[in-house]
Amino acid sequence: MADKVHDVIMIGAGPTSLAAAVYTSREDIETLIFEKGIIGGLAAITDQIDNYPGFEEGIEGLQLAEKLQKQAERFGATIELGEVQSVKKDGDVFSLSTTSGELQAKTLLIGTGSEWKKLKIPGEDDFYGRGVHNCATCDGAFYRDKKLVVVGGGNSSAQEALFLTKFASHIDILIRGDKWKASDVLVDEAEKNDKITVHFNTTTDEIVGGDENKVTAVKGTKDGQETTFEVDGVFVFIGLKPVTYFLEGSGVELDEYGFVKTNHKLMTNVPGIFCAGDVRSGATMQIAAAVGEGAAAALSIREYLENYQREMIPNGNGQD
Amino acid sequence: MSKKITVFTTNTCAYCAMVKKWLDSKGVKYNVVNLDENPEKQKEIYEKSGALTVPVTLIEKEDSTEEVVIGYNLARLASVV
Ligand SMILES: Cc1cc2nc3c(=O)[nH]c(=O)nc-3n(C[C@H](O)[C@H](O)[C@H](O)COP(=O)(O)OP(=O)(O)OC[C@H]3O[C@@H](n4cnc5c(N)ncnc54)[C@H](O)[C@@H]3O)c2cc1C
User: What is the per-residue pLDDT across A282-297, written as a single tens digit (0 to 9) for each?
Assistant: First the structure.
C-alpha cells in the first residue's frame, strides 16, 4: 500500500513529460516522473535536432535531453528510473504498479511516446544487438568501414542513414513502396550522398548470419526478383507504434491505431488521466509539438487539481 | 564484491549516459572506455559481450570472475553491481 498520494505522476520522461514537469513543479505541484529507458526519450537518441526552436545551429539530441531534465529538476520534479506496469482507478486516486512498488497519485500524465515496429522476418530476433539494430547513435560506431542495410522510407530512416554514413563505407536503403515518405530536405540529402543507394519496391525478407554468429547478408525481393545484399549489419526504421501496454484494464480509451484519445484539455475519458506527445491520438510526432502539448497538459492538470482540492475540503461547496 | 567496473560507451550513445547516471546515483565508482576515442577496444568488448552494441558494463569481481551487462538493463545491473 502506498503511504503517500502524489499530486501528479508522469509516465515516461521524454520531452512531453519533462516540459510538463517544468510547468507543474514551478507551480508547486508535487511531480514524480517514471522513466524505464532514457531520460529524454526518443529525442535523446537523435543525433542532431535542427528544427527545435531556440537553437539556431541545431542541438544534439542528448544535449537537449539533458537541458530538459535539468530544467524540470530545477523546480523540484523527481525522476525515478523504473517502469509503470499498470494503472487503475482506486476511489479518489489512481494506483500504479511500478518496478519501485505500488504508488498513488491524484492525477496522471501519459507521455510514453512510441517504440520501433519490427520487421517480423527470420533472423531479426536472432541477431538483435549483434547485427540488427534500431539505434544509430548507439550502435553505428561498430560499423566503421563496413556495409549496411537501412530499412524504411520515412524521416527516421533517411535521417539515421545519413548519420550512419559517418561510419559505414556503403548503405543500401530498402524501401517497400515506390517512393519516399520523408521530408524533401532529408530525401535530397540522402540521395546526393555517394555512400547511399536507394532501392524502391524492395521488401526485406530475411537476415542471414555466418559462422561467427554475425550478420553477413540481407535477402530481399526487388521488383519481384530475389536479391541479396552482402552487408555486416541492418538498421530497421519502419515506423513507430504507441506505447500503451500498461493501460490495459485502466479504462483509458484508444483510437483504432492504438493511440490514446483525449479531449481539447488533453484529458482522456478517465477524469484525472491526461495524455500528451507522440502517444496521443492526433500527435504530430515532433519535439516542439510534444513540449507544447506537455505544457498545455500541465495547465489542465493544475486546473483539475484546483477543483480536486476544493471537492476534497469537508463541507466545501465546490464553488469559488 | 566487484573490484573494478568499466562502462564501454560512444560519444552519441544515450543509453550509456543512463548507465553512468544510474551508477552515479548508487555511488558506484567506474571507469569509462569511449570506443570513439579508442576504436581498438571494440574487438576486446565484442569478444567479451558477443554484441555489437553499447553500453556494455564489465564487472570484474574480487574472485577474478567477470560479469558482462549488455545495454541499459537496470534489473541486471542492480543484481551484479
Ligand atoms: C530517429 C528519430 C529522429 C527524430 N528526429 C526528430 C527531429 O529532428 N525533430 C523533431 O522535432 N522530432 C524528431 N523526432 C521525433 C521526436 O523524437 C518525438 O516527437 C519526441 O521524442 C516525442 O516525445 P514524447 O515525450 O512524447 O515521447 P518519447 O520521446 O518517445 O518518450 C517517451 C518515454 O516514455 C518512456 N516509457 C514508455 N513506457 C513507459 C513505462 N511504462 N514506464 C516508464 N517509462 C515509459 C520511454 O522509455 C520514453 O523514454 C525523431 C524521432 C526519431 C525516432
Answer: 999 999 999 999 999 9
Q: Are B58 and B18 in contact (CB under 8 A)?
A: no
Pocket of ligand 1 (CB under 6 A): A 11-16, 34-38, 41-43, 46, 49, 51-52, 83-84, 111-114, 156, 159-160, 243, 246, 277-278, 285-288, 290
Q: What is the position in ligand 1's atom list of the atom closest to the CA of A240? A: 53
Binding-face residues of B in 20-49 toward A, CB within 8 A: 21-22, 25, 35-36, 39, 42, 46
Name the pTM for this structure: 0.89
Same topology between domain A5-115+240-316 and domain A132-236: yes
List the CATH code of the domain at B3-80: 3.40.30.10
| CATH number of the A132-236 domain | 3.50.50.60
ipTM of this complex prediction, to 2 decimal places: 0.82
Domain boundaries, chain A: 5-115+240-316, 132-236
Lowest-pLDDT choice from A73-82, A149-158, A165-174, A205-214: A205-214
A5-115+240-316, superfamily in CATH?
FAD/NAD(P)-binding domain (3.50.50.60)
Residue with cell 531520460: A39
Cell numbers representing residue A199 in the block: 532501392
Q: Name which of A151, A135, A159, A125 is nearest A237 in CA terms.
A: A151
A118, A140, A156, A131: which is closest to A230 by C-alpha? Answer: A131
Backbone angles phi, psi at B22, to 5 degrees: -65, -45
Mutation site, A132, A142, A215, interface B, largest B CB count within 10 A: A142
Return the domain boundaries, chain B: 3-80
